[in-house]
Amino acid sequence: MGLENLDIVFGLFAGHLLGDFLLQTDLMVQNKRAASVLAIHVSIVTAVSYLLCGVWNSWQIVVGVFVTHMVIDGIKAASGKDGPKVFLLDQGVHLAALAAVGVYWIPANAAPYWRTLFPFYTEAVLLLSGAILCIWVGGFWVGKTVAPFQEAIGDASASLPNAGRLIGQLERALIYLLVLAGEPQGVGFLVAAKSILRFGEVKEPEQRKEAEYIIIGTLMSFGWALLIAFATKSLLEILP
Which of 12, 95, 110, 168 could serve as a FRET partner for 84 with CA atoms 20 to 30 Å apart? Predict the structure, then answer.
């Protein structure tokens, strides 16, 4: 696989992740069984992927992204299944399909336009993909995984709307930056700081369920962020 293919594959990844997690509304997610809603969502993903790849004469990108995304999302919507395992399987199939399109279907001499303007284009789309995977995809996976525990503890305490989601995103963003900056030991200070701040909420015996819920969610969130951050850093180091 040549450098051009890597550029395109990372561009396809970034386009998919942007379209699926930052540009897809809750209304789209809830109504994706409707063909019109699914078509709008897939068209957005296709357009963003095409723009990010910057290979203007490649119809294969448009057809490959549109068809694979339509088929995969259509099957998932029709099945009605959800949950952390289905979520990971769905995203894994999406990324595998895009990798296959970029490697085996896009012509080897197809060079992204953006690389002629920005020599660091490959690194940029890789960093963007890693950031979305770490911050947003990780949040969705953790949320789906701990949902049963949240139902078990109920509304134990008042909380600001979406505060937990934002805190998790900020935590994973800091971990991502610390690892890429070569300062992973800073994650230890982040863990210590959160432990101190959370101590007042879970010091009572009757709050054991809430304490366990917080610990599980935090460890999963930190583990996901570290995995994605180190994987991104490793890929950056082996790029030509």
Answer: 12
